[in-house]
Write a structure and sequence with these properties.
Elements (H helix, E strand, L loop, with lengths): L6 E3 L5 E3 L24 H24 L3 H26 L3 H5 L9 H24 L2 H4 L2 H33 L4 H4 L5 H20 L6 H23 L5 H5 L1 H23 L4 H29 L4 H12 L3 H6 L2
Helix pairs in contact: 1-2, 1-6, 1-8, 1-12, 2-4, 2-8, 4-6, 6-8, 8-9, 8-12, 9-11, 11-12
């Protein structure tokens, strides 16, 4: 019997040789089991910008209710800027602008893309009205239209804040409903990672752009979001079985490791930035960079997991062994 065969413990404590060699996961003609995603950097940029916009909308609503006008202004404008960037990246990835319009023809609750499209439709107008109220020149604010926009700014901001959690998390559901193993197997954790990452980036944006004396809510949101991101992101390295290797190796690992360093540093800085403008700006930039690298790292892990057949075959076999063959079929 070949020496390449594995040895296992026998009933009497001795070593016995296996009857079959350890399985190797090779696909037909060496080709991947799944097609590699054709998405480029536009997709992680879209994920980051949308999460940033949602967190800024939440901060803006809180700043409005607690009478922090400068924090309210920068976060309302940040919410609009993030939404605009997110829509640009999405439409650029779709290839033709009319494809986004076509998704509005139907509402399909079973499709994360359809639900996400309608979430953006519900979110966008409130963000736009509240930002316009902040950017409107003083001479226009005295007109009838200006006064109307001013009156609508608060309810519009609150309505967008109510939808913002969906904006921050629906992209995680969108990814996890694909056949990509690193995303599909992480479906229980990705929404928490994305929401925490969004909160950290929004808090970081507020720390960078708002004066220190008004940025208290931004610092608290940044710290809470960073802790949530760090804790739940670690689960991707430990709770996904063999698929966790896609997160712990290669370019995805390096990107996420740097994200962890920056996010942890930014969270620490948010606790120390109560009086220092320089610390606040540096910490906020670290949180923004950490959030962006987290999305890019998760994207890279997904791409890598489509290249090795074991990330598809092993989880399917494990589901069959647990008596859940339907689960194996659903991941295909």
């Amino acid at each position: 019997m070949s020496r390449a065969l594995n040895r296992v413990a026998g009933g009497d404590g001795t070593k016995e040789e296996r009857a079959v060699p350890k399985a190797s996961f090779r696909s037909y003609y060496g080709r991947p089991v799944l097609k590699q995603p054709v998405w480029e950097w536009l997709v992680p940029a879209y994920l980051f910008a949308g999460g940033l916009s949602a967190a800024c909308a939440e901060l803006a609503a809180g700043a409005d209710l607690t009478r922090r006008p400068r924090l309210r202004k920068v976060t309302r404008v940040g919410a609009l800027g993030g939404l605009g960037a997110s829509m640009y990246f999405l439409i650029a990835d779709l290839g033709r602008p009319e494809r986004f319009h076509h998704m509005l023809r139907v509402a399909k609750p079973s499709s994360p893309m359809s639900v996400g499209t309608w979430i953006l439709v519900a979110y966008g107008p409130g963000v736009g009205v509240s930002a316009v109220a902040e950017l409107m020149p003083k001479r226009l604010r005295r007109t009838m239209l200006g006064k109307l926009v001013g009156k609508l700014a608060r309810p519009a901001g609150l309505s967008s804040a109510a939808v913002a959690p969906g904006v921050a998390s629906y992209t995680a559901v969108l990814l996890s409903h694909t056949a990509v193993p690193a995303w599909n197997e992480a479906r229980d954790w990705l929404p928490f990672v994305f929401t925490g990452s969004a909160a950290a980036s929004g808090g970081g944006f507020g720390m960078v752009c708002a004066p220190v004396e008004e940025a208290g809510p931004a610092r608290r949101l940044a710290a809470a979001g960073a802790v949530t991101e760090l804790v739940t992101s670690r689960q991707l390295d430990e709770r996904l079985g063999v698929v966790s290797e896609a997160y712990r190796t290669g370019r995805a690992h390096r990107l996420r490791q740097w994200s962890e360093y920056l996010t942890a540093g930014g969270a620490l800085g948010s606790l120390l930035a109560g009086r220092s403008r320089g610390v606040a700006v540096a910490s906020g930039l670290a949180l923004l960079a950490g959030s962006a690298l987290q999305r890019l790292g998760i994207f890279e892990a997904g791409v890598e997991s489509t290249r090795d057949p074991k990330y598809v075959v092993v989880p399917q076999r494990q589901r069959v062994d647990r008596g859940n063959p339907a689960g194996a079929e659903s991941a295909q």
